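Hey, can you fold this one?
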Amino acid sequence: MSRIGNNPINIPDKVQVSLNGNTISVKGPKGEMTFEKNDNIILTQEDNTIKFSRENNEKITRSLHGTTRAVVDNMVTGVSTGFKKELDIEGVGFKAEMKKDRLFLSLGYSHPILVLPPDGVQFTTPTPTKIEINGNNKQIVGEVASKIRSLRKPEPYKGKGIRYSGEYIRRKAGKSAAK
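Sure. Predicted structure:
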């Protein structure tokens, strides 16, 4: 029994959902997205809700039931409100700055690192130590945030590096003086 797949999706007023064969198209103020669903997943649209069911009880169909519902829900949320990830930079001399639509990072290396946003993703830097990544595709926003974080992961001794906002870094004790 799929618990997630059985939950209906409420469609906001400004979002349009259309089904053409197995292709689901979602259009809203923040863009348009499409998804190709499996033949065994049945989509029914009533008023402002979408419900998902499955034709059979095979293992692959059961697993795709909740996955399809989650993907379509993320598409509806993405085109209506969008997704946002925040990164914090910690360390002496570490900073981020925007030049046009490009993100330049100074992370203690001998050179600044240039990060170009993929299509549908925008960077903002409210402060030199904070990066905001906005977009309508949850997967791409998460991937970009992960790639930026991997440029200088937070280290456990001083906590220097790039971390997600609210992420807890488990700290280690450094060397203790010999007596």
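The chain has two domains: 9-80, 83-164. Let me know if you want another pass with a different chain boundary.
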